[in-house]
Amino acid sequence: MLSNKWLKKIIHGTGPQAQRVDRNTNNLGFGWLYYGLARLLWARWVIVIGSGKGFAPCCYAKAMNDEDRGGTVILIDPSYKGLEPPSYGGIGFWDDAEAVEQHFSSMGTQNIQLLKKTSAEALVEVEEITGGKAQILHIDGAHSFENAKEDFNLYSRFIEMGGVAVLHDSFCQQWPGVSEAVEVFNRKRWDVLTLRLWPGLTLVTRKVGSAQEG
Ligand SMILES: C[S@@+](CC[C@H](N)C(=O)[O-])C[C@H]1O[C@@H](n2cnc3c(N)ncnc32)[C@H](O)[C@@H]1O
Q1: Cα dihedral 74, 91, 156, 21 sign
Q2: Which fold has domain 30-206?
Q3: What confidence tens digit (pLDDT) does each residue in 5-50 have?
Q4: CA 139, CA 69: separation in Å to the nearest integer?
Q5: Does residue 213 register a pLDDT over 70?
Q6: In angstroms, what is the span from residue 161 Cα to ligand 1's centroid?
Q7: Cβ of 138 below 6 Å from ligand 1
Q8: Would you give the distance in Å from CA 62 to the centre of its chain?
Q9: Which of 38, 186, 193, 195 has its CA at 20 to 30 Å from residue 161's CA atom?
Q10: Which of 88, 103, 150 gets mutated to test ligand 1 (max ligand atoms within 8 A of its CB)?
């Protein structure tokens, strides 16, 4: 469960993160949504594309552990470093496998499987691991229009009916590519809701009658 000790650990252990956390009050910001969604959906598979130091994957993984029905986060990140493309804010955090294992262990979130690859490279492996079915797809990797659109196009087919895609940085001047990509999502197939709280978070769900193929 979410003790103050754990909240403090994730907020301090994965920062700095643009997730609307408040260190003074242990406010998890967008993390409340990540945690709540994974529990609400009894998530078995969560696919996370891109993470600086593991904030979002840890929130999902913690929720699945607390729910205790079994559940794994697949984290895809090539461990780029730097603010500019192709990294988009990565800090090379995923380079040292032993340190990564210790990091997740200290959060009580060993149920995270890291694929140190780009999203395009990892696609086939993710389909094999998950059986092509996920309840949550979290997109926070490369932030150009083309990349954000491609990540959604490649991976959204895995989202089951009732599941949710979450796109980070969708209301943010620094990286307008994400909100531009959201604009072109097919509204006949997807319902889209953007929370315009900097840096923005967009939730996308399948419309009734939309087949899982995409
Ligand atoms: C902006 S950072 C995510 C930071 C995040 N907002 C947080 O709070 O932790 C973007 C991450 O995406 C990763 N990335 C960049 N291109 C990617 C790609 N093609 N596929 C998967 N991850 C990618 C980078 O290595 C970096 O770690």
Answers
A1: positive
A2: Rossmann fold (3.40.50)
A3: 999 999 999 998 899 999 999 999 999 999 999 999 999 999 999 9
A4: 24
A5: no
A6: 26
A7: no
A8: 13
A9: 195
A10: 88
Give the global pTM: 0.97
170 ligand 1 Cβ < 6 A:
no
In this structure, what are the phi and psi dihedrals at residue 42, rounded to the nearest 5 degrees? 50, 50
Ligand 1 centre distance from Cα of residue 145 (Å): 14
Domains of the chain by residue range: 30-206
Q: How many CB atoms lie within 10 A of CB 146?
A: 11
Residue 209 CB burial class (10 angstroms; 0-12, 13-18, ≥19):
exposed
For 125-158, how does the pLDDT look when each residue is reduced to its tens digit (9 = 90+)?
999 999 999 999 999 999 999 999 999 999 999 9
User: Which ligand 1 atom minimizes the distance to the CA of 18?
Assistant: 8
